[in-house]
Design goal:
The chain is of the alpha/beta class. Helices cover 54% and strands 11% of the residues. The chain has a five-stranded parallel beta sheet. Helix 1 packs antiparallel against helix 2, helix 2 runs parallel beside helix 6 and helix 6 packs across helix 7. The radius of gyration is 19 Å and the shape is globular.
Length: 241
């Protein structure tokens, strides 16, 4: 493979060395005002930038496709008493506040709910933070004489308006970063993941904004057939038999 076709930004909040950025993300999720949310995102942005920059450095001269945050926010609310106590102390709020915020984010079917581009439309500052982290990382690498090739993928889209709305934010942030750091434009591609049948049906319209598509065949399959990929194994054997 020449490049990386899917860099999931949310994976930086799992596993080794994830505790500090995860704490910043949780702080953003539990914010009650836009000012609090912006403050938390400002603390989180350097971690996103460091992650994408180190990857583009290793992949110098090859494309890296960064998919914006996709999973539902409630997945990141701490579930253990210990973690809730730590977060409550850091934020100066009660554990009850954390539990109530988690409950307010809970969805009956989060795989088809407030996630992906829907989250970024509700809170444009979240996508703006990710755009800035990616472009700042690219600008710094260019200044070092390297050749970063970022591609930005918008998840869970179902209309061309979603793409154009996010593209306007993306280009605004790009221009700001270029104006503040480098004299030559940052080369990048802007696209989306086709993972909902409606998106496949109107792909010609979405292609007016998107420069590339990636196909999420697992989600396309489960939504087309009405099978849950998590549960279908319990009865698929009978069908195939």
């Amino acid at each position: 493979a020449e490049g990386i076709g899917l860099f999931r930004i949310e994976h930086m909040f799992y596993g080794k060395n994830s505790e500090t950025p995860l704490a910043k993300l949780r702080k953003m999720i539990l914010s009650k005002t836009d000012d609090e949310r912006r403050s938390a995102l400002a603390e989180l942005e350097p971690f996103i930038k460091a992650s994408v920059k180190s990857t583009m450095r290793v992949m110098d001269g090859k494309p890296v496709t960064f998919r914006l945050l996709d999973p539902p926010l409630h997945e990141f609310v701490p579930q253990t008493t210990e973690k809730r106590e730590e977060l409550a102390k850091e934020l100066g709020i009660s554990e009850t506040d954390i539990e109530q915020r988690g409950e307010s984010l809970h969805e009956v079917n989060p795989m088809m709910g407030h996630r992906g581009v829907r989250l970024h439309i509700t809170y444009p500052m979240i996508s703006e933070t990710q755009f800035r982290a990616i472009f700042t990382a690219a600008a710094e690498l260019i200044e070092e004489g390297l050749n970063p090739m970022p591609e930005i993928m918008i998840p869970v889209t179902i209309s061309d308006r979603e793409l154009s709305f996010q593209k306007a934010i993306c280009d605004k942030v790009k221009a700001e970063v270029e104006g503040a750091t480098i004299r030559r434009p940052i080369e990048y591609k802007y696209g989306t993941m086709i993972e909902i049948p409606r998106a496949a049906l109107i792909a010609d319209r979405m292609a007016r904004t998107a420069e590339f598509f990636s196909f999420g065949t697992n989600d396309l399959t489960q939504m087309t057939f009405g099978f849950s990929r998590d549960d279908v194994g319990t009865f698929m054997g009978d069908y195939l038999g």
